[in-house]
Amino acid sequence: MLNRRHLLGVLALAATLSFAPPVLAAQKQKFDQKAFEAAQAAGHPILIDVSAPWCPVCWAQAPIIARLASEPRMKSLAIFTVDFDSQKELLRRLKVQKQSTLIVYKGGKEVGRSTGDTNAGRIEALLNKSI
Fold it and tell me: What pLDDT, on the 0 to 100 scale, is given for residue 30?
């Protein structure tokens, strides 16, 4: 049976854990060429996530990517975000024509890409190609 002391202890522990940073999480950042090249040189698995704030498919992909990126096996995954509306030159270099495009790299080599996919299993399979 829980008494007041146990209840306060559980609440204190829950409050402490809720403010603790995640121990294992992928790194997510806006695309930067130097950081991208450094991640490639370090042999990190890489995801480039091309999205737009108005895109419903991108919104559907976001929680799937976040869940998968939080898994321990994805702890070294580097996620680079690209804004479809404002980074047109980068889109040309990456040969991306639509938002909701996901590109994965293993080291320096592109190993997969998808556009418009919101199936969690297929997104997971795509990310698995990078690790």
Answer: 96
pLDDT (tens digit per residue) in 66-91: 999 999 999 999 999 999 999 999 99
Structural domains of the chain in order of their starting residue, each with its CATH number: 24-128 (3.40.30.10)
Q: How does DSSP assign 36-91, residue by residue? A: HHHHHHTT-EEEEEEE-TT-HHHHHHHHHHHHHHTSGGGTT-EEEEEETTT-HHHH
CB neighbours of 70 closer than 8 A, spacing ≥ 6?
Answer: 22, 24, 25, 26
Q: Are 82 and 50 in contact (CB under 8 A)?
A: yes
Contact 79, 49 (CB under 8 A): yes
Q: What is the DSSP letter of 22?
A: P
